[in-house]
Structures are given as C-alpha cells and as structure tokens.
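Example 3.2
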Amino acid sequence: MGVRENSLGSNNHYFKISGGGVLYQSSKEPKEGYEEHVNDKTGAVSYWKVFWNGIEGYLSDIEIREVDYNGAKTKYVAIKISDDEGNYIINVPLMTQKGGINNYVKSLVRYLPNIDLKRKVVINPAHARKGDQYAPGNFFISYARETPDGRDELIQQYYKNGQNGWPDRVESTDIMGNKKFDYTAQDAFAYQVLNKYIQSIKTDGVKPVQSASQNNAGEATTQTPPLSYQPQSQPQTPPPSYRQAPPQTAQAPSFGGQQQPPQYPPFGDDSDLPF
C-alpha cells in the first residue's frame, strides 16, 4: 500500500510538503477526511489531508516538470513512488525563492546512490517539532519493513558534506564582519547528479555506474543549472546527521543482466496536477 494510512482509489495521487515539513494533499473544497487549513500569511482557506507516516513503494521515476501556476512558470521535481495500487507523486519546487536548489531536492540526491530500486522504500519529510534536531528541508528514506511487526531500515546517505565529492558550502565574511555562505558549487553538483539519475532511471531502470561527477571517459563534467538559478548566499545549517559522519560506500547497480525493476504506469499529463 503506497500510503500507509489508507488505500486510495485512482491511479495518480499528488502530494505537497508544507513549510513545516508536513506531507499532505489539498483541496479547495471540503472533502471527507480533509481538515480545514488557514494560511497564516494570506488567510486563505483550503482543506488538507495529512499523511504522517510517509509513502511506501518502489522509487520508479524522477522528473523535472514545468507548471504554469497563476500565470508564472515554476519547475518542480516530481518523485514517483509506485505499487500495485497506483502512483504516489511528491512535488517539490526545484528552486528556492532566493535562487538556490531546494533543500528537499538536495536531500533526495544525497540518498540516490545507496537506494536499491528493487526494494520498497518509505519516504517521509522531516517534520518541524519543538526540540527536534532535524529541520524541514530533509527527507528520511528507508527500506520498508518486510513484516507487519518489523521495522523500517534507514538508508545511509552517500553524499555528505565534503565526502564522496559533495562540495562544502563556502564561507566568507562581508565588510561588516558578518559570515556569509555560498552554495553555488554544492547546488551545481546536486543538479548534475539529479539529472544523471533522471536519465538513467528513464532509459535503463538502473542507477549510473560511474561516478556522478564524471563522464564515460572519466573526465569531470559540468551540468548547467536552470536559467533561474542564482547563487544561494543565505545561511543554512545542515542537520547534525550530516556532520562528522564516515564516508558511505555506494551499493552496486540495482539491476544486472536481464533482471528488471517492477514496471508501473507513466506520469499523468500536466492537467492532472492539482495546481
């Protein structure tokens, strides 16, 4: 079952993540199982159905989609989790309002080399709760428990600050003595790795074999971020789980020989998106 709380009927189900890290579906009209939600900034009323336990299934596709929303075009990363009951698609913006790569996108990229596509995963955003060490902007991705009384197995992140090619943020000091952080190199690297995995999953259903920072000839490559990309200079502090951890070893490619991952229906048309 893709959504652990309940089974959903139709083929494609779309989810968003709130500023506080809550995974939810939304509606402009009241629906059964949905609760009224009032936007703190605008006062707009909508109806949310919250999924606290995340989504379970196979990571079957990742796609960058451009959506026309209120007259403005915005690029989203669509993460598709599939099972026999349908597709569960989490949409997160590719870019932040300040022009950097969205932290949820970078969090996904950190896990990608260590995800075995043959195994069911559970993906859930970190919730903002008082006293928590994890801030919104991060995913928890685990292998799903195999028995009802079993436990999910947290997948180790392959990319960590300064490890396995992941660039550190660059610290500088302005003329007033204030510290500033530049994420330009880190964002460009994350965007390059994301695109490599998108192409690999679509064409072969497997993970890239070579280093994400190299081409087939073993030479360094540069992936150009979207035109809307601007250097991200605002301070961001990675959660403690990203600091001082030993390097992780990427797993072997998920599929070899004639073995193939489960096949699921493709993404729906743009008109399916709930925007």
